[in-house]
Amino acid sequence: MLQLSLRRRLLIGLATSAFLVPVFVTPVLAAPQQATAAVAFDIRPGSLDAALIAFATQSGRQLVYSPGLVAGRRSDGIRGRFTPETALERLVADAPIDIHRRGDKAFVLKRRKPGATPAASLDSATGDDLAEAPSQLSEIVVTGSLIRGPAKGASPMVTVSRDDLDRSGRATVADMLTDLPQAFGGNASADTNLANTDGSGANPVVSTGVNLRGLGASATLVLVNGRRMAGSGLMGDFADVSSLPTAAVDRVEVLLDGASALYGSDAVGGVVNVILRKDFDGAETRARLGGATAGGAFERQFAQTLGKTWSSGHALVSYEHWRRDRVASAERPYAANADLRPLGGTDHRFFYSHPGNVLLLVAGSYVPTWAIPAGQSGVGLTPASFQAGQVNLENQRARSDILPEQDRNAVYAAFGQQLAPRLELSGDVRMSRRRFAFALPGSVNIFTVTRANPYFVSPNSVASNVIGYSFTDELGPLRAHGDSTSVAASLGADVDLGRTWRANLYGAYAQDVTRRDGERRLNTRFLNEALGSIPDDPATAYSAARDGYFNPYGDGAANSQAVLDFIAGGYLRTRYVSTVETLNGQADGTLLTLPGGPVKLAVGGQYRQEHFDTRTIAMTSRAAPTTTLTGPFDRKILAGFAELRAPLVGPENARSGMQRLELSLAGRIEHYDDVGTTRNPKIGVVWSPVEAVNVRASYGTSFRAPSLPEVFQPQDGGPTFLAQGAASKLVFIRYGGNPDLQPERATSWTAGVDYSSRSLPGLRLSATWFDTRFKGQIGTPVYENLTNVLGNPAYAPFVQPLDVNNPADQAKVAALLAGTTSAGLYPTTAYTAIVDGRYVNTGGLHVRGVDLTARYGLLLAGGKLDLTGNASYLLDYKRKVTPRSSWLSLLDQARQPVDLRARLGATWTRQAWSMTGGLNYVDDYKTTLGASVDSWTTIDAQVAWRAQGAGWSKGLAAAFSVQNLFAADPPFYDDPQGVGYDTANADPLGRFVSLQLTKRW
Predict the structure, then answer these.
(1) What pTM does this model have?
(2) Quick check: 808 and 801 in contact, CB under 8 A?
(3) Residues 691, 30 contacting (CB under 8 angstroms)
(4) What is the Cα–Cα distance from 976 to 537, expressed in whole angstroms?
(5) What is the pLDDT of residues 595-610, one digit of tens each?
(6) Within 10 A of 595 (CB to CB), how many other CB atoms are there?
């Protein structure tokens, strides 16, 4: 059973949206009025259930009805000013439903008996009617409030319904969330990983996170049915939304405000609450096919959902299979070749090549000095054969992928059962397995060849040479594959405590286990053995003298398959396990009644335990595999929280210029057994001077506790080459955890105005200003900008220059090398600096901007036209690398957020047909060198049909969608990684065409 009321789901009226673009607005909820007073309604066509939710939100009336009464039914919606009674009659006009009044503020919907005529009027429900009416279940708490009831919140919210997701043409929740104008794609996405543009390196398993406001995927809290997901990736610090089944989604609520006072850690940039279906009666089958017209990304999706509701409960099970093929770099001209000169850029090809280059160490940099000639076997070369002053260059993008192959199988089940008049038990289980595979640029290496190699020849008559070499031609690209298994379960009880008070208790478990394997990797020890640089190792079955030496001077098939198979005997196998276990208890109800209305309070506590461990089996530099166990790391968290909502002015004491004034206060204390205690308050104010205007403001503090690996991961390091101008410098770079880390802390302000026109009932406007200041943000500034570390004063605190003539410096390098597998690769005098890439509390991040939305509906050509706009405009995006450094503006720079992202949408509906168009816009910006990157505009379109009558077609719907209708390529960006577009602000999918069929049984 279901109770639907003003006290149920704030903003769910928006969830009935038929728009392509989700509306960003906190609506003014109408105060209860007399039956004769007209109210402005704007309810779009869609499911009857969603229409009734919107009715309750916009009218301020309660509805009580059984889910089975409306399951599978549609409503034409309404727009205009009507009395609540008239509006409700129009919404259910085509359904066999009678309406009965329940007091002054509620209606009971009942199934009309077969053969009976409609009720003559909205008569009052009798005692017998109420006895037969559906029993009231626990009211749903909306994201952004712990209090059940009208969360007339001060915080901005985006709500995306089931219909919104279908009309968008997107196949997955991940695609829909990352397309929001308020989201940023700079990390935790598949193409940033494959293009090597995600400086954090924390997403080796191509998960998809949500990064609101550009504050980081780890600063956006993702919930499923209000429960935490387990972390994904190398650090377990963000939720993988690509694991969620699309068919099971009922709606998604996105809170665009700091909310640690309500939810604890990670809710800095906002909260995404993915609410899965529960009350569903019948069966639904979904099938979808799609693909990119430029090649790759062929997609297939199938889902089956079964549900049943009865007088005291419900049950549902849903299965979904989804698969998308890879997109090879060669299928996109801007990703196919690291030489971007034909596109107007520069040449980013490697001097690690095949054939290779002979290098000289000059001032700490290896400089290609002689090119090994092409088109020869590597036998019989003389010093004169080498090409002095020339350089062989390798296209590292060759044979790689820009988007991975992925498939996912997911099962979701949920149930609810009323065990007693005051007790309901509910639970859900979600299991998902996502598999992936992709190809990365092949192995490259710098190695030394001595006279022990029979092919050795030196262009400068020395006893050994250093060669820069690419193994892609001989060993192929680096292929990776793996799987991610996500399991979550929750069991809870809602208890009616009487006198408006209710309690909710639940236990939840979530785990994410990810595996990634890479076979046929270069083993540097085997290479040195095959080169003759080290003696034959009796631990291997290979003998260079018997089986052949590796010839580093040839082109083409200079080495036998036996030699190549031996040096390619390396592999890397990793596993990451993240677990979250939660026990939560809270109660809420009316504390007292003021003239403006009831003061409501929620109080509760939570115990949470987090776990993370990794296992790596590597055979890349030794003769036997090495197993490294990191962790297990565990922490325990205790939390207490409270929220108070006080209506100071309401319907009973409203006056001119003060129709409503409401104050909300929230606070949470969390104690971590490793990083200490945090205290976070939040305050919100909502003021309505007139019925059409809603003014709101909020202030709060938030935090993010460091992830377990960020604190406890063992420290290590090794040699690497970093660019300094045109040179490449050898440095020792440190990495690992930091036990001295403190939680990140943030302060958030928002202020907004919402306007609902009385003269134009379909017009709604909203503006929200936001300001978030992040302090002590945890990161690895060095890894996030490796190409710009050396010589940049901002990174000076992380770079210690080394003097080749200073014994203390050389001893320091030797000590750091002693604990690594890289001790003998280069002499200590070759290192030019020690770079600290460990996790640190950085100076901070400041994000400030404005969100603007508008929507308007009108009748046109015998149908209904709905127009929407949603834009996010950033005024500031500034970072401090260290607490003492100056603010550095990153706004409108490559790989950083741009100032303006927007989506415009239009949907025209007439009877069974609807047509939707959407425009997506990303503003132009500059590179760090001042070059311009053009704006990017794409157009989406959809034609949909939904059967209106009975018979075989009843419940059947079809949608033909095209994303990026005109196949607009991403604007050119000369990325140092050798791809010709900005992976943070564009995507390589291209035009994507899909057909989806849905059948309700």
Answers:
(1) 0.84
(2) no
(3) yes
(4) 40
(5) 998 999 999 999 999 9
(6) 10
